[in-house]
Write a structure and sequence with these properties.
The complex is a heterodimer of chains A (271) and B (89).
Chain A lengths: L2 E6 L7 H14 L4 E5 L7 H4 L10 H6 L4 H4 L1 E2 L6 E4 L12 H14 L2 E5 L6 H7 L4 E6 L3 H14 L4 H4 L5 E9 L1 H5 L6 H8 L3 E6 L2 H9 L3 H4 L4 H13 L15 H9 L2
Parallel strand pairs in A: 1-5, 1-6, 2-4, 2-5, 6-7, 7-8
Antiparallel strand pairs in A: 3-4
Helix pairs in contact in A: 1-13
Chain B lengths: L1 H6 L4 H37 L9 E7 L4 E7 L6 H7 L1
Antiparallel strand pairs in B: 1-2
Classes of the chains: A alpha/beta (271), B alpha+beta (89).
């Protein structure tokens, strides 16, 4: 049975697109059939982060308007064959994104893929609510920082009221993905700790992605970090998160600075 | 200054406390529209049992103050129903 995921956050710049690309690639690298959809109409970027910006011919709105068939708009990744991308339109016409149109596209994708990952635009407007509309589960990307945590709380409220599942009286499964985590800053009490964020949002944790130059390097090169540096700390963290999504029970380790035994001992205390 | 620095334990606890207070308020406020909708329906149902009125001649307003909030319900009832009201009281 296909799973529809929405990667959402409310706040911009927290790592939705990066996480969509990395998780989509990680799932595909492990043999799942995956499609990632960019819902950020007018400001598409998933194509760029995935290194497919020069291969976009048709987009989501073309499919909804009947200008192109779904199969014509899907871009198959050149490195991972069971990974596809459905890009957003670059035009500003957001009204073209209709609820019925999206329902139809998602229904068709459900027959072709195991995972349908919707990359939500920032904000709580139409684009964001449409991206979460058909989700079975949500990945809430949060930075350990006050404005991001507040916006995540807002988004959690929307997931519980504006989705098809919520309207049917069912629940959208929610997973928290904490990104840009600085272990040393958290240890010094300069940054909200993982426990703080979990307690405030009371949402189960999917993974912790440490702040890393590898993430920037990956987007510079147009390659998901799980592909460009699978053994880096963020690469491994995304792989672990993708395995948890598939139902594997992998204990979550709070990243700590690996600077010798002293640091390790005190880093562990946080777990 | 040095003493202050010595005892300062980072700003994360402050962030945590501010967030907890703020979100407690916002979560309550988020449920308000639903509360007004619910009150509206139930109050109107009670009144409708005794008096007929136009649904669009109803105004319900909630003012939230610091210690007390007020709920204002204004229903325009045609004069033809004055007799019905008098009889009911």
């Amino acid at each position: 049975m296909a799973q529809v995921l929405v990667v959402t956050s409310g706040k911009g710049g927290v790592g939705k697109t990066t996480s969509t690309a990395a998780l989509g690639a990680a799932l595909a690298q492990e043999g799942e059939k995956v499609v990632v959809i960019d819902f950020d109409v007018g400001l598409r970027n998933l194509d760029l982060v995935m290194g497919a910006e020069r291969r976009v011919v048709f987009d989501l709105i073309n499919v909804i308007n009947g200008v192109a068939k779904l199969t014509q708009a899907l871009i198959r990744d050149k490195r991972i064959e069971n990974l596809s991308l459905l890009p957003a339109s670059q035009t500003r016409d957001k009204d073209a994104l209709t609820e019925e149109g999206i329902a139809k596209v998602i229904a068709e994708l459900r027959t072709k893929f195991d995972w349908i990952i919707c990359d939500s635009p920032a904000g709580i407007e139409r684009g964001a609510t449409l991206a979460m509309r058909h989700a079975d589960a949500a990945i809430i990307v949060t930075n350990p920082e006050v404005s991001s945590v507040r916006d995540s709380d807002r988004i959690i409220g929307l997931l519980d009221s504006k989705t098809v599942k919520a309207e049917r009286g069912e629940r959208v499964a929610k997973h928290l993905l904490i990104t840009r985590y600085h272990p040393s800053r958290a240890a010094r009490g300069e940054m909200l700790s993982i426990e703080d964020v979990l307690e405030i949002l009371s949402t189960p944790l999917l993974g912790i992605i440490p702040e890393s130059e590898e993430v920037l390097r990956a987007s510079n090169m147009g390659s998901p970090v799980t592909l460009s540096s699978p053994l880096s700390a963020p690469g491994r963290a995304y792989f672990d998160a993708s395995r948890r999504l598939r139902g594997n029970d992998i204990p979550i380790q709070i990243p700590s600075e690996t600077r010798g035994i002293f640091n390790r001992l005190f880093g562990r205390k946080a777990a | 200054m040095t003493l202050f620095k010595l005892f300062r334990r980072g700003s994360a606890p402050i962030a945590r406390e501010r967030l907890q207070i703020l979100l407690a308020h916002e979560r309550v406020a988020r449920n308000q529209p639903e509360l007004i909708g619910l009150l509206r329906e139930e109050i109107l149902a009670v009144i409708r049992k005794h008096v007929a009125f136009e649904p669009d001649k109803v105004m319900i307003k909630m003012d939230r103050g610091n210690t007390v909030s007020t709920l204002e319900v204004e229903i325009e009832i045609p004069n033809a129903f004055g007799a019905v009201l008098a009889k009911a009281s």
